[in-house]
Structure formats: C-alpha cells, structure tokens
UniProtKB/TrEMBL annotation:
It comes from the Bacteria. The middle region has homology to RecA with ATPase motifs including the RadA KNRFG motif, while the C-terminus is homologous to Lon protease. It comes from Brevibacterium pityocampae. ATP binds at residues 90-97. Belongs to the RecA family. RadA subfamily. Plays a role in repairing double-strand DNA breaks, probably involving stabilizing or processing branched DNA or blocked replication forks. DNA-dependent ATPase involved in processing of recombination intermediates, plays a role in repairing DNA breaks. Stimulates the branch migration of RecA-mediated strand transfer reactions, allowing the 3' invading strand to extend heteroduplex DNA faster. Binds ssDNA in the presence of ADP but not other nucleotides, has ATPase activity that is stimulated by ssDNA and various branched DNA structures, but inhibited by SSB. Does not have RecA's homology-searching function. PROSITE patterns: RECA_2. Residues 61-210 form the RecA family profile domain. The gene is radA. This is DNA repair protein RadA.
Length: 468
C-alpha cells in the first residue's frame, strides 16, 4: 500500500506520523497500491520538439493581451498570455466568480470565444449573476460540469480563446481514485487542464479554494504547476477587494489590484486612496496619515488612535487593519514620552484597509501621542518612517513616490527620517521635515518651540511659520 500526504502530495510506502517532505503531522493517508519503480529510457525527440537556438524562438506568442479589466491586467503584467494558467484563490463569497465572469464576458464582447465551466453552481444560477452584472454575451459559453473528461472534450470541440474553471477542487476524473478535492484528484485535474491549455494555447483561469490557514487547498504541487498564483482578498463588511500576486512568470510578483464590490458587479479602482481617508475636515486628536505601498502602488491611509484610562486591571490593546505586534512595539517606544501602561489603546485604519509594512510606524506613534495628550497634529500631516526599538526613525523605500502621492491628495505637511530627502524631489507646495528620533518628530508636530526647529525642506522659506 501507498500513503500520500494531503498537504504536499508526497507518497510513502509506509505510514508515518510526520510527512518527510513538508514536515506536516498526521497528513499521510492510504491511497492504494505502491507504484513500482520504473527507469525511463532515453528516446529521440519528435521533429517539432527538438531544441532550437533561443534567437530563433518566436517571442510574440508570449505577449500579454488586455482583458478590459484594468486592475486585473495590472496584476497580471498587462493581460492574459496565450497558454498561461492562472490560479485565483480566495475566501468563500469574496467575489472570485463575479470577477471572472466579468472577465469572460469582456473577452466575449471583444469577439473572442470564452468557456466558463462551473462545478459549484448550476447554469441557471450563473446566468442570473450574469444578468445582474451585465455579462450576457452570445460568445460566452457556459457549462455546469464536474467530470474532467467531459471538460477536456469541450475544450477540444469548442476551441475557446479563454477558459475559466470554477473551481479546480470540484472537478474529478473517473479514471483516478479519490474524492473531488483530494490530493490525487486535484493533481490529475490540474495536470489535464494545464496540458490542454499549453497544447491549444488557451489562457486558463482556475479558481481555487483556501484552507482555514489561508493557503490554497490541495497539494502544494498545484502552485508550482501554474504560471500565476493570485489571491483575492476582502472584508465582508467592506466593499474594497484586493487582488495580489504571489507568483507571476509574466510580470511583477508583488503587484496589487484594487476593486470595488457593488450591487452591479466588481469595478476597477484606479485611484483607491480616497477610500482610506475620513471625510471630516476638522482636526481631531489621534489621527495621522501614512503612505502604504502595496506592490508598486502607494496608497494614502489614515491611522486613528484612541487612548483611555483602563477601568479594569489589565489594559486592552485592540487593533484593526494594522499589525498588532508592531503596534505593541510602538506603544513601548512612545512610552518614553507619555505613559500608556495603564490605558486602553485602540488603533485602526479608515476604510478597512490593512497596513502591514513598517513604513506606517511613525504615523502610529504620532497618532498614539496625539490621542494620549488630547492635542491634534498639523492639518493634513503625513508621517513616513520605520521605528526601531531605540526610537530612531529609519528610512523606507520610495519616499519620493510616497510624497508625490500624498501631495496629489492635498497633503501639505510631511515628516520623514533623517537623510530620506537625498536625491528626492520634494513636491511643490509640500513642507517636509527630517527627524532623527520619534521624540524629535513629536516635538516638531506637537510641542516644539519655533526657535529650536530646523528649517523645513520644500517650499517653506526660512523663518516662515510652520502651518497649523
């Protein structure tokens, strides 16, 4: 008998408590007779598959073709490449099927044949969604099928220009043992679909389920076989959806696309920064702007903090949209200025955006101090910098790009790390101050005396009052 790991697909002739390949515990399951070892003999390559000089290879066959969905094309590196296989994973109900149905309809609208295979919903349910988002096209072919052999037959007969399979865990092959979604079935389904996509040059999008840990369900081999791995993220209580790439053979692997989930479908957000700022123009204590960079896109977000005396013995630390570990470190650093040990601290972002990079540390620290002393910061102030345990402000990448994005949204004041403005063009109308420590930054934007402040770099002339 053979035992196969449900996480990575590793096969072992005897049962083990721990998989020797992925080190997961309790994942080896009995799958059938052990395969006999066979040595593959060398053979001559066919005429059309022989090695050729790289200069003679036609590179136009790997050119990306736009889908019409701007943010989707941005993440993929320009569009869909013929023969490319894309794995799109996400939580249930986040909008994966709606997004791909819109992509397939746009392809059909551009005189292409698109085949949408649904293994989770009936054809009638998919049509109702298509009516709601305006995706009814004659060139959009729809099939509700879960048999891999039938799907491969459809591909051979219809010869579509785009293939969408929703989802890879619902398809199964009658020639392979195992339940749909199991390691053996997912491996066979992925291999069959990828082989058909490469042979016919069809761009294919596979929808994948995720586990409770947030990883793609099935063997890890699935992510290695496909060309692009994307994750579709979003909060159920927010309209914002983010499409991230973790692997991309045709473009950058760190790009992020933003979408707005509406009643009529999913719309691309070319400028999402406005969603993450509060509408109020009043200066409130405990608020500061930060610039988070998602992939190559800078986004201005608003960080809010609330500090209250704790009525219980153990003060609470509650965060939303930010990293709790980094907030705890920022609280410890700012305790040199104001004591927060016996206070409840709440830190959140506006609009449901998640900020995980260290560039928002300075904004969190300034918001905490502002909330603790109940005094507002400068109006339209953005803080960019990472905070060390000693309170030093460290520089972060792409400061010029972040300042330009903040200036575009009307931000006029900024605080950055010492030396961050070297070889950086300060946007016109913006006053930027370089600070070495958190205490220096607090002294500048909250409590400092005018005589001891260094001159701001930017459009502010020497001796000019700092804006309040």
């Amino acid at each position: 008998m053979a035992y196969t790991c449900t996480e990575c697909g590793h096969s072992n002739p005897k049962w083990l408590g721990r998989c020797p390949q992925c080190q997961a515990w309790g994942t080896l399951e009995e799958t059938g007779p052990a395969a006999t070892s066979v040595r593959t003999k060398a053979k001559a390559a066919p005429a059309g598959r022989r090695a050729a000089p790289i200069t003679g290879v036609d590179g136009t066959l790997a050119r990306a073709r736009p889908t019409g969905v701007g943010e989707f094309d941005r993440v993929l590196g320009g569009g869909l490449v013929p023969g490319a296989v894309i794995l799109l994973a996400g939580e249930p109900g986040v909008g994966k099927s709606t997004l791909l149905l819109d992509v397939a309809a746009r392809a059909a609208r551009a005189s292409a044949r698109a085949l949408y295979v649904s293994g989770e919903e009936s054809a009638g349910q998919v049509r109702l969604r298509a009516e709601r988002i305006g995706a009814l096209e004659d060139s959009l072919l729809l099939a509700a099928e879960t048999d891999l052999g039938v799907v491969l037959g459809m591909i051979d007969s219809e010869k579509p220009d785009l293939l969408v399979i929703d989802s890879v865990q619902t398809l199964a092959s009658s020639d392979v043992e195992g339940v749909p979604g199991g390691v053996t079935q997912v491996r066979e389904v992925a291999a069959g679909v990828i082989r058909a996509a490469k042979d016919h040059g069809i761009p294919t999008i596979l929808v994948g389920h995720i586990t409770k840990e947030g990883t793609v369900a099935g063997p890890r081999l699935l992510e290695h076989l496909v060309d692009v791995v994307c994750s579709f993220e979003g909060d159920r209580h927010s309209r914002l959806r983010l499409l991230r790439t973790t692997k991309n053979r045709f473009g950058p692997a760190d790009e992020v696309g933003c979408f707005d989930m509406t009643e009529t479908g999913i719309e691309s957000l070319a400028d999402p920064s406005g969603l993450f700022l509060s509408r109020s123009n009043t200066r409130a204590p405990g608020t500061c702007l930060a610039v988070s960079q998602e992939g190559r896109r800078p986004m201005v977000v608003e960080v809010q903090a609330l500090v209250e005396e704790s009525a219980a013995g153990n003060p609470r630390r509650t965060v939303s949209g930010v990293d709790g570990n980094r907030v705890a470190m920022n609280i410890a650093v700012t305790s040199k200025y104001t004591k927060l040990g016996k206070h409840d601290v709440f830190v959140a972002t506006v609009g449901g955006v998640r900020v995980s990079e260290p560039a928002a540390d300075l904004a969190v620290c300034l918001a905490l101090v502002s909330a603790a002393v109940d005094r507002p910061l400068y109006s339209r102030l953005v803080a960019i910098g990472e905070i060390s345990l000693s309170g030093e402000i460290r520089n972060v990448p792409n400061v010029g790009l972040r300042l330009a994005e903040a200036a575009r949204l009307g931000v006029t004041n900024a605080v950055v790390a010492r030396g961050a403005l070297e070889n950086v063009a300060v946007p016109a109308g913006m006053r930027v101050k370089e600070c070495e420590t958190v205490i220096d930054a607090i002294d500048v934007v909250l409590t400092g005396a005018e005589e001891t402040r260094p001159v701001w770099k930017g459009s502010r002339a020497p001796g000019q009052e700092a804006p309040v």
